[in-house]
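## retry 2 of 3
previous attempt timed out at serialization; input unchanged, resubmitting
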Amino acid sequence: QVQLVESGGGLVQAGGSLRLSCAASGQTFKGYAMGWFRQAPGKEREFVAVISGHTGSTYYIDSVKGRFTISRDNAKNTVYLQMNSLKPEDTAVYYCAADFLFANWASRNNMDYWGKGTLVTVSS
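## retry succeeded, writing output
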């Protein structure tokens, strides 16, 4: 059974940092793109960042560029999201996702696999 399990969320003050982790199990994800979406209260889910499986290419939504860094450890079947200079508008449930395709993550959300989310709350 394939599972993606997020961890690392919590409460942090504006300007602070958190690192989210997504541990995958049930199969290897070395050949999959893996990334993060988020959903703020009262808003629709939006794409945040993705990293490809074969080349390590990354792509970020404009609002997090320069602040967030996505990385992966294929030996641990885990993807990370380092979040620095956090802002109150970053408050959301963050969801890990994996898909065989790397292209167009910013404009689609039909991922092969989803985690159940971890809550990030940024206070002002």
